[in-house]
Amino acid sequence: MGEPEHVRSTYNDIHNLIRGVSDKIASEFKPDMFIAIGIGFFPARVLRTFLKDPSTKKNIPIQAIGLSLYESLPGTTAEQLGSEVVRTQWLGPDPGKTLLGRRALIVDEVDDSRKTLQYALNELQKDVEMELQLLPESERDSKRTKFAVFVVHNKLKPKLGELPPNIPYFVGAEVEDVWLDYPWETIDIDEHDRLAKEDKERKKTT
To answer: Distance between CA atoms of 72 and 81, rounded to whole angstroms?
Structure first.
């Protein structure tokens, strides 16, 4: 089996993809909190620029959670690697209180197997439900957190995880099942951008 095709994205590419979907997110969901999964903090920060309320000038807060599916961490076994989501960082001691009543947009850079997104959504919903149980029943529906998901890239492949159909799902771009090389993963950014430009020029001629 040969080396998988690599697709390189520049910072400008990512920025423009996020800008292109920002109006749709603003009109269809209007988040008042971002929950960034790992490197999803970068697209969340870019997205915040486009979703700032022009009347109040207030920034949407960004919370970060750490989840690992493919990264080897202390204490993880070979069997867990790539098959089990490991939580490395969460929303502090009272996550339910942080989330209650919010319109929370979960942000990640890529939807690959969907297992990480499924885990994040399920666990965050559990935190909310635990907090709701402390409220009078008459107040629970109005305080229940609404969630949505945004990814910069969605890989067009069979998914191992699932998201409920009632969860709004926003995508910057749909891509084939290729190896995505992001600019924040490279050491030599100039070489990365040069290769990305070559890739684009090559595709124009094929």
So the answer is: 7
